[in-house]
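Input sequence (536 aa), recorded before submission:
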Amino acid sequence: MLDPRMPPREDCVIREVIDRHAAGQPDKVFAVFDDGEEWTYEALRRKVRGCAEGLSRLGVGQGDFVLVWLPNGKDCLRVMLALNYLGAVYVPINTGYRGGLMEHVIDNAGARLMIAQAPLVERLAGANVAELREVVVLGGEAAPVPGLTLLPAAALDGDADALPEPERPIEPWDAFSIIYTSGTTGPSKGVLISQLQMWATFIPNDTTRMEQRGLVNLPMFHVGGAGPIWATLMRGGSFALVESFRTSEFWDVVRRFGVQHTILLGAMTPFLLKEPPGPGDRDHPLRRVSMIPLSDQHAEFTERFGVEVYTSFNMTETSSPLFVGPAPAARGTAGRPRPGVECRVVDENDCELPPGEIGELIVRADMPFALNGGYHKNPEATAKAWRNGWFHTGDGFRMDADGNFYFVDRMKDAIRRRGENISSFEVEKEVAAHPAVRDCAVVAVPSEHSEDEVMAVMSAAPGRTIDLPELVEFLRPRLAHFMVPRFFRIVGDLPRTPTEKVQKHLLRAEGVTPDTWDREKAGIVLKREKLVPTGS
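Predicted structure, token format:
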């Protein structure tokens, strides 16, 4: 490449990366699965080329969009990389989708072919499937769906040696995936991702070595699951692929597969910390975690489990613009800008704010295609996000005088109570710090006066009971009086997307339920501390 900021093709174009590693380290293990099966790089190339030839016989060509509706596993990995190898576009669907959300993604993608797990296919019956015409069914048989041709799994078993060459070279800036945003507040948007964006996301920030094994337990329809796989492939590493994160099984999985690094996203960190301590807390090979967001207890995590902690800020649309570690010194930071990106905190007019003030984080990169290519078939959302040459994250941030950036809240999740702006993120951190609280989400509910009231929805830690009056006393010295929630509700589990994001819109829609505790009705009213003016 002529631009010195861009990597060589053989480092970022998936087809060339697979061929290079299969030739250079054919016997190295690339992936290991739940059942213990291992794929070397040579086996990977053979399986991917065979699947790619099967897809080619089904009419899939360079630049074509193909929907993939599969859980984490061998089939999803083989299909994803086969599409990448062809130069086609991998378009995964959240396995939790059905009804309108499912129809929206199918319509937005505009694909004629889908690869789907058999139990999911029945959700297509009676749905508006837009341009979809054929579905390759994996993992069993599915009942017929009117208007669709269902094909057997054998349709993907092609001849690796018969695979034709691409019509043109696959370029690093070609779209190779559409990942849909979580859709927690509205219809999912399809983010166009290039191979350069994925290279920029993981490779410059990755301090792990090729010989270290990672763990992928986030879903492959999310960049948190698919992204580390692409990154592992680009650097010639190895990873274990499991279906999902389970607190009680996490350390057993780490030991079984010799995992040395992984991502801890959202509630994973407090879930692990709130498990009872035991003699095996340091009896494992894990050496490094990327903790997103950075827990205030990251030092405790390091001390208890003997693991280095890093953190970063990323979105499906960006390429890890903020990064820091190990052992970040600034409490609660999301990191500092990595080389090659600029980050600013701005007001509603994109004017940069001074340190300490809260505004929206905007980002731009010096390498072409290092950020998203827009939202598929959504020019309005693309234009709104890409204003004035910067990508607008929609996240509230502040920056300190030392250049550390801090996530405050999603701009749309901010709460306004009696003239005060409240970060739900900050309140959640303090509520979750209570030892009896396993998980917490804070949302706005309507006030009988005006603006919002604050409600905390919580689940209890294993073997613990949440004493709500005692929790309020715990929060008094930790939060401003106006930030302490008025309403508290205890549930078994918070509603989450498969990517571990809390579905706050569901909690807002439920509002104050009959089982919600109102501290003011219980006689606990918090007021601003009266201060006596000083001076002459």
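Checked by second reader. The chain has a mean pLDDT of 91.
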